[in-house]
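Morning. Coffee machine broken again, so started the prediction first thing and wrote up yesterday's gels while waiting. Chain of 186 residues, entered below exactly as on the submission form.
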Amino acid sequence: MPKSLHCLSLKLTVEYFKSPNYEEKTDEEKFIDSSLHHYVIFSNNVLATSVVINSTVFHAKESSNQVFHVLTDGENYYAMKLWFLRNHYKEAFVQVLNVSFCGYDNPSMNQIRIEYLSIFSDSHYLLPDLFSNLKKVVVLDDDVVIQQDLSALWNMDFGDKVNGAVQFCSVKFRFVSNLGELFNGS
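Came back before lunch.
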């Protein structure tokens, strides 16, 4: 993590504990309402997560039906929590969860050593247990900027498939080889 982001996270964490005045919105029913549009972001980067949420809400036709679940590690949990308590994204709701201490109802999940999980790779398999009350969630990476309304995703029928993906980049090989020449100085 770059030093400047680590410092921001550290400052936010310290401020969270110095300022007990922050009241968390108690909209617990929104976090489990399957009629709303639920997005999951795995990240330990406060600013990147904020950009993803902001761009999603900005392009949404209706922000009041959007719920963002930010899953982070214990080191960044309080920084994320304070950031999203302070910053609002139109009418969208944001929940910050610490993946290190998520409670699991499934006994087999209790046997998993959480400290070996990377929130950047293999944590997607936790989604069915973490969000068992929801019919559908959309996972957004923390390095994307949403450029259009995503509400059409909620009307798509995936049939018996458990996940879907979109092609986000198409680059012709000729273009890539020209970039290589540019960076190699030829």
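The chain has a mean pLDDT of 78. Going to sketch it on the whiteboard this afternoon.
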